[in-house]
Amino acid sequence: xxxxxxxxxxxxxxxxxGCNSGExxxxxxRFLLDTVCTLTADCEGEVIDGAFSLCEELERTLSxxxxxxxxxxxxxxEGFVSVSEDTLKTIERALYYADLSGGKFDITIxxxxxxxxxxNQVIPSKDEISEALQNVDYHSIEIKNGEISLGTRQIDLGGxxxxxxxxxxxxxxxxxxAENALVNFGGNxxxxxxxxxxxxxxxxxxxxxxxxxxxxxxxxxxIYERYIKSDGxxxxxxxxxxxxxxxxxxxxxxxxxxxxxxxCDALSTLCMLLGTEEGLGIINNTADTEAVFIDxxxxxxxxxxxxxxxxxxxxx
Length: 316
Description:
By secondary structure, this protein is α+β, with helices and mostly antiparallel strands. The protein has 8 helices and 19 strands. It is 28% helix and 31% strand.
């Protein structure tokens, strides 16, 4: 039975088109991971509850602010710390993308990101940022026998953990028999089945283009959701590890489509930090991964495996 549903989101509008049975469809929204999270699937309500319970458990593991989390313990312990497989996998993948980006994607940005208060519109001073930047260097992280040492650094997994948790929720739904599902964690999207995704026009809210994906993930990073505007200048949350301020280049958003939300999450941020040319180079050399780049003039650039007809984007 075909359906058409418009779901408001932080970074992407999703238009659900068609492949739910509808007979057992359940949907629930909760506030987790510092964002609005929605799970919709053709399964019983207790399965949705179970998926959210898993997400809550992973948040308690990967959060930098919850005092009983593994990340909090890492950030406040000298020497090597034994961690779970979830924390280990997430950090290992983050270090891979740190190397790939030449240090632009760096989870030790935590001392700098902690200075920025986008909720209360607080801009840190140049001196505060300069001092915090001295503590940003992912090369200090060591992994040995399943244990991790941060050296003197602190980490923020905000650019990758939400994707990992979305993947785990999707895996859980598949294990419980879901054949069609939408996992929507504030711009981190995983699909079981086929969905038509509308990519948001930055600072506008309208749909600038659509693309149909099946059993894939799509994640958007952009400068237009979390920012401070002061004296006509926008200070956004995608922080440059060289300056401590929101990265300044031509891009307004990047949507990455791939097999896992973890990789799409990291890659969308990485591409925002590197800019269109370097970002395209990485995407075009990453298997089974595509991306839609939108600059500040709303011009669209596509990776090599995509093409556009009017407002519809297709896979080649």
